[in-house]
């Protein structure tokens, strides 16, 4: 399967996009994105044609594409800096350098002229140059021997290869005379042809591709030159015949070429109006398919049974334990096999240390004594700071502690093996527990949940239904406080507020019915718990209720009311030392939704109730904890995410920090 464009591909594409009706010259550059590590997407406005997307994958491909990868949520620094320099500019030229896999895109914005260099060889790179060819910005800063791709450096091309379009017979013979490879490999590496085109040259010339290069004579060279000329004549004449290639009886394409090859005469082909379209169908479609497969794999991994994932991890851990046990046991046995040599070496090292020799001097002594000391030949390294000598014992690297005896060194490895064996047994027991849990899950009846929910006007506010079925609504901020009073409060309702400021205007929608004491108590608990009292970490507070006619926006003469504030006139009905607490639950009938409010009301209408108190976790953290509780309880991630995602849970929580009540 072809992984990157060849020099011939680059030549064909540069001709197509640099001149003629498909030219990108005078196109305006829009926003730039980096969907992948080496992938760049440049939005273009092509003259008289409209919008298009140029995809550039360093080291692989470049073409206009219909298969647009999704842009990352957080833009990376490279595309953002490119935007700063070239966004809004126009393309002045699009060309190939020499016959190499390098494309240069000239850009002019105002008086500034820059060049975007695309390297499609090796690891590849995308580099922005100024008008003096000084590097403004590389995608990947790298340093090679004699070549630095870093900001501020003058851009240097890689070492030049011979161009097959211009090579003559003498040059060909000269190159082959200094090659110790065969004809096809020499053509591929020294003339920038690559494997497929080199084989095509050999096929068209009738030369055995395995012929040693040193045996190429002028007659053979002449045939090769002639074959190269015929091969690339479509490029020089501008008579391309682009196609993708697949094996007979196979729909999967494995190559894309700008003109027909004799090598592919027996293969299935699909022809295109332009080489760019062929490249997009080959590279773009394949990349899009690969991205879709990765997404599906990610979804599958997330939805895969938690017990199955755990089982795989445990089985993997056991294999590693067994491998490490065998390794440590084997090392211990090797130490005993080489007992006498190691003992002699240890004694030599100890004698030298007693004479105050440095480790550097000891290394020199050991090196000189290899003929008299067999174990010295086995030394790989001496670490004086740790007192360790690394030996090669029949291919196994073994660290020997010079402060220990031979049996003690062997025992160190036996002890490691014993500890690993205990862990292995523990993992085996854990596997049995997992298998039992899996079996229990299979036999347990599985609930199927269905999301049923309608939009209600009150869901824009804080709300709950009391144990007696009354709707209570409260403001979320100054704006919604105003809205409740002006739009939804009726004369027959009751209004709650706290003695201290910083509470939601809370209204019991009575619908003309008598309000039971239980509903009044729950409304009091709600207004206290969803106020600044919770934020302050207090565990009780005072509140009162009044009638709607006691609430007014008309201040006393000379006073001013800010948005969301009201004047309360007349007698107030107080509730003292109301407990500060709240709960979150899941309402599964008749609708499916997450609900929050006073503990009693949530318990009367919801399931899987979680009680909360003022604490230390912020809303996001406590919402995630509750979400995990629901996922573990219901075993249906998709359902929980739909009705009680962390965001939806946070929406029904009291303000400030909380703890889950044990």
Automatic annotation (TrEMBL):
Name under which the protein is recorded: Archaeal Rqc2 homolog aRqcH
- State the encoding gene: rqcH
Species of origin reads Methanohalophilus halophilus
Q: Which InterPro entries match?
A: NFACT_RNA-bd, RQC_Subunit_NEMF, RqcH_archaeal
What the record says about family reads: Belongs to the NEMF family.
Pfam families the record matches: NFACT-R_1, NFACT_N
Signal peptide (residue range): none
Q: Where is the NFACT RNA-binding domain?
A: 461-570
Primary role: Probably part of the ribosome quality control system (RQC). May mediate the addition of alanine residues (Ala tailing) to incompletely synthesized nascent chains from stalled ribosomes, leading to their degradation.
Name its GO BP terms in alphabetical order: rescue of stalled ribosome
Q: How does it assemble?
A: Associates with stalled 50S ribosomal subunits.
Report which superkingdom the organism of origin falls in: Archaea
Q: Name one GO cellular component term.
A: RQC complex
**Keyword line:** Coiled coil, Protein biosynthesis, RNA-binding, rRNA-binding, tRNA-binding
What PANTHER family does the database record attribute to this sequence?
NUCLEAR EXPORT MEDIATOR FACTOR NEMF, RIBOSOME QUALITY CONTROL COMPLEX SUBUNIT NEMF
Question: What Gene Ontology terms describe what this protein does at the molecular function level?
Answer: ribosomal large subunit binding; rRNA binding; tRNA binding
Give coiled-coil spans as residue ranges: none
